[in-house]
Amino acid sequence: MRKLWEYIIFGTEFIREHKLRSFLAILGIVIGIISVTTTLSVGYSIKHTVEKSLQSQINIISIFPSVSINQKRLENYEIESSLTDEDKKVVEDVVGQRGLTSVSSAMDVEIEVNGEFENSTVAMINPEYFDIKNNIMVLTGGRLFTNQEEKMNEKVAVIGKELAEKNIFDGNPIGKEIMIEDTYFTVVGIVNNVSDENEDAISLSTSDVGNTIFVPYMTAKLNLSSAEDPQSIIVRVDNKDEKEKIENEITFALIRSRDIMAMDDIDFMINPNEFFENMDKKVATYITLFLGLIGAISLIVGVIGVMNIMLVSVTERKMEIGIRKALGATRKDLLAQFLVESILLTLLSGIIGIVISFCILFVINFFVKKSTEGVLKITLSLESLILALACSIIAGIISGVYPSMQAAKLKTIETLRAQ
After folding, report:
1. I need a surface site. Which of 3, 32, 94, 192 has the fewest CB within 10 A?
2. 262-290 mean pLDDT
3. What is each CA distance from 244 to 11, 59, 91, 250, in whole angstroms?
4. Does residue 8 have a pLDDT over 50?
5. Helices 273-316 and 331-371, interaxial angle, to 10°?
C-alpha cells in the first residue's frame, strides 16, 4: 500500500510538471468519455421513456376500423369500415367483469361561451374512459360525469385545463355553459395531462387533453348532428395476464357479429399500435448501441494518444529509470509506476469528461424537455457514470501496459549510458 501511494505521488508530480503534455494526452480520452456518457445517457433516456410508456399500456386493448394506406405516402389513408354501437356491446359482453370498456370518437368544433367563440375538440366517450385512461389524464377540479348522467341524457362536460384557463370562462369554468352546435353543456370538471401535473409521470400518448371537451357519448349522439359512430373501442383488462386471451375472444366475437366469412375480409384492427410501439423500443435500443459505438471509437483514439505520450515519457525519462534501477527498483516496481501514471491520466480525464457531460446533458435536457413538453427527460444515467469510470481505468491500463513494459525492460547500464 505504501508503494502504491508513492506511485500515485510520482504520477501526480509528473502531471503537474508536464501540464500541457498531460492536457494534450488526456484530451482524446476526455472527448471519448463525453461521447460515451452523453450518447449512452441520451439513448438510455429515450429507451427508458419508451419502455415506461409501453408498461403503462400493457393492459390496454384498442379496436379500430381497418384502414387502407397509400404505399407511396404513408400519411395518406382511408378508413375502409366503421365501428358501431353494436360492436361496443359485443366487446362489453366479452369483457364482462374482467375489465372496463368505452367508446371514443372525436371531432373538431367551434364552441361558444358567454358570446365568445373558441376552437376546440369534442371527445365523445363513456364514463369508463376516464378510468381506462387514468395513466394519461388526471382530474384537477370539479368531478367526472357518471353512467347515470349518460343514461339520463344529461348535457354535462369535462374540459381540459388549457381550455379552462382561457379568458372565455372568466376564471372558474365549473358550472359555466358551453354551446356546441345548438346544444348547451354544463362544465362539471377539469382534467389535465398527467405529465403536466406530475414531473415523474411519463406518457408518449399523442392525445393532448388540454384543449379537449369530454361529453357523454350517448348524449352527444342524441343532441349533436355531427356526432359519429365510435372511432375506437378501448378496453382496460384488470389482469394483464388475461389480455391475450380476452383479445382473442373479442376478435372471434366481432368476426361472428359482423358476419365475416374469411380472414381476409376482417374489417377491424386490434392493438395496431403495439407493432409500432415495440418497433420504437427496438429502435431506442439500436440508437443506444449505435451511439455507444461512436463513443467507443472516440475512446480508442484517446487510448492511442495516451499510449503515445507514455512512450515518449519513457524515452525521455531513461536517466530516472536507470537511477531507480541502480537503487534497487525491480521490473515490477517500474511496471507499476508507469501503469499507475497512465491510469491517473485517464482517470483524471474520466472525471473531467463526466463533469463536462453533466453540463452538456443539463443544457440538452432543458431544450428537449421544453420541446417535448416534459415527456422526454435526458439525465446522466448511473450506468453511463459507472461505465465512464470503468472505461477510464481500462483505457489507462491498455494505454499504460506497453509503455510500462518497455520501461521495465530497460537495462540500468544502457539507460545511464544513453543519457
Report:
1. 3
2. 67
3. 62, 9, 14, 10
4. yes
5. 150
